[in-house]
Amino acid sequence: MTRRSALVLTVSDRVAAGTRDDASGEALTARLTGLGFEVERRVVPDDVPAIAEAIRAAAAEHPLVVTTGGTGLTPRDVTPQATATVLDYEVPGIAESMRAEGRKSTPMAALSRGLVGVAGRALVVNLPGSPKGSIESLDAVVPILDHALETLSGPFDHDIERAAGRRDLPPGA
User: Fold this and answer.
1) Under CATH, domain 5-163 is a member of which superfamily?
2) 65 near 58, Cβ under 8 Å?
3) Each residue of 52-82: pLDDT tens digit?
4) Do 53 and 20 form a contact (C-beta atoms < 8 A)?
5) Closest Cα to residue 129, out of 51, 22, 50, 19?
6) b/e map of 15-48 (b: 16 or more CB within 10 Å)?
7) 77: CB partners within 8 A, 6+ apart
């Protein structure tokens, strides 16, 4: 069974500076706790290296890393760029599902640039910075979350080196 721990990473200059409450981080923590996760929280400013390092460190410790904030269109919204530097590969269907669910409430959900992907054996999910948008997006993932985490935790039923591109290996090597 997958270890049920998650990190909620709030990406916000103002929350990091202490001039704004972390409403989205609080809402996500409550939702994930209700789903049975032990949740750790961290905050970083809107800075690509800081975001990337926080995601990288969290992915080494938790099977689920959820970011909130920095997915919009402003020049300071850099969470997807930072996330892309850490991911081994993207899982675009999950991000598409989140945006589709959000469009049921507002057409503005299509403006979210959040990514979803895998870093090591962790699932990394970028969510919007608003409490409502972050919970709606997370809830779009909930039906497949356990299966995704179980799949990533292994064991794998195929040759890892072969999956990583080592086609030169004979079967069973």
Assistant:
1) MoaB/Mog-like domain (3.40.980.10)
2) yes
3) 999 999 999 999 999 999 999 999 999 999 9
4) no
5) 22
6) bbeeeeebbbbebbbebbeeeebebeebbbbbbe
7) 46, 70, 71, 113
